[in-house]
Structure prediction request, 350 residues.
Amino acid sequence: MSNPSEFFPTGKIKSKILSQLLNKYCSSKIDDRVILGSEIGEDAAVIDMGDKYLVAKTDPITFLDYKPGIYNNIGFWVVNVNVNDVACCGAIPKWFQTTILLPEKGTTEELIEKTFKEIHETCKNLGISVVGGHTEITVGLDKPMAIGCLMGEVEKDKLVKTSGAKVGDAIILTKGIVIEGTSIIATEKERELLERGLDKQFIERCKQFIYDPGISVLKEAILANQNFKIHSMHDPTEGGIATALAEISIASDTGVLIEREKINIFPESEELFKLYNLNILNTITSGSLLICLDEKDSEDLVNLLQENNINANVIGIIVPKDKGLKIKEKNNEILLLEYSEIDEIIKIFQ
Prediction:
């Protein structure tokens, strides 16, 4: 039996360990139609289907707290987190499947129907066909879990890889960070926040962050890829923007220099994160999109996004690998950009 001290913590497996496992066991060379398989930092698999590439992604929703009678938008969430990763490859999402695992206690017909309805309505609004899945009540669970599998397609000359970032590229951030994290905190800690004296309308606003400004990056990904030569796109999730930038760096064999004051943080997010003393750069942040492209095109892309009501700005540049991962603080001091696969949001559940 393993010593408890050897057990892994909650969150992503460390990149070094995952890389070793992928190299040892996950071969994509069996079928030469596999253009992109399992690689650190890449958002989805890419398969050559003839005139187009098929892009395939699977991602779960497992972190949402659950109390009988309280519904936490799991259907909306599981569709969108998969859509984001397919969109980051430049693809249009087309076909969705999901496995829904429900707890023995607290599962009602209403919960099941709401989950189905939310998945189907979210997919319908995004032009995605629901093509199957599996639903069961599972022994040992204390909350619902949903695992999505999404497929999309992309023209071959429009495929975008995380590894495509190039030295000198501008790094654009859309919307702002911790959109997802803000909603999770407000949803899971609503009663505690009320007890601390926060206004109910403020809390409700934070809960609604998943819808406005929203956790989907599909619109900005399509706008960017249809109008510019995009070198890399990445959707920051667990570990926040810092880990996402590290994943771009690892995948593209480059370094990164960003400026803290250029990173947009919503006032509501700042208030909640100060309250719980969380590192805002290392917290789950679906809803933001990182886009790397030639610096000369960056201003035009920012303008296009803003014309389409998507906040965006340049937050840094891709630098040579030997420059490492760095962040320029507001006092102009340049420090190491620290990241961790263990997301800060875990602290609110401990």
The CA atoms of residues 65 and 188 lie 6 Å apart. The domain at 4-158 is CATH 3.30.1330.10 (60s Ribosomal Protein L30; Chain: A;). The chain has two domains: 4-158, 162-349. Residues 66-71 have pLDDT under 50 and may be disordered.
